[in-house]
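Problem statement: downstream parser choked on a complex file, so we are re-checking the raw output for the phosphoenolpyruvate run. The parser issue turned out to be on our end (a line-ending mismatch), but while we're here, posting the original submission so the record is complete.
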Amino acid sequence: MNKKYRRVIIAGNWKMNKLPSEVKPFLEELKDAIPEHTPGCSIVLCVPATHLASMSREKHRRIGIGAQNVSQFDKGAHTGEISVDMIDDLGARYCIVGHSERRADNGDTDEIVNAKVHALLNRHITPILCVGESLEQRDRGLTIEHITYQVKAALYGLEPEQVKKVVIAYEPIWAIGTGRTATDEQAQEVCFAIRELLRREYSAMVSRKVCILYGGSMNAKNCAGLLAQPDIDGGLIGGASLKVEDFAVIVREGSRAE
Ligand code: PEP
């Protein structure tokens, strides 16, 4: 499978960390630490909703703005929720959907994830769709079955042209925030299986176009091997995106992998 059809995406997920006032100094430091031009590599920071306005103010052409969650509803009586229009108005061009922490803590079911993917694409915001198996599922040999189910459910009802615009992040739950990364081979195996699924369900062209990321304790030390895999087009990075020097190493590696 040829990587030339896709760009590399290095996306940070700040989760519930940092303050809005920390956005500006972080971005200033980051801009100095990454290459001036990264033509085939998009850099994205997915920040808490409270930080989107600061991200927008400090906006830099090299760094795309991402949200971490959005409501599946357009507007109205949904206290505490944030709509696609709201994050769009604050400059978000990406939004994480279906992160395992939200599936576990906030009851985001496959149906809800699917509704959020539709809502984002209707507003031309790129969903970063997270899928991943638990350790128990892996130990029982159910990884590919589970991932297949999650991907199919999340993409249900989309046109092939819309599917091309979705970014899929393979994030084994047992690797998130644990320091236990999937091996290059384990990550490649699942990302390849996702690409094959897209080929079967849609077409070879759709499968070639979709960016598939790996996430789960990716860091400055292990990113080179993961990003070199033929079906891994970048990373979704939690802990290591909070420190400029670590994130910058991954961005530089991503720029080389394009
Ligand atoms: C994540 O939150 O999506 C993630 C991959 O976290 P970490 O890199 O810290 O494992």
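For whoever reads this later: Residues 171 and 215 are 5 Å apart (CA to CA).
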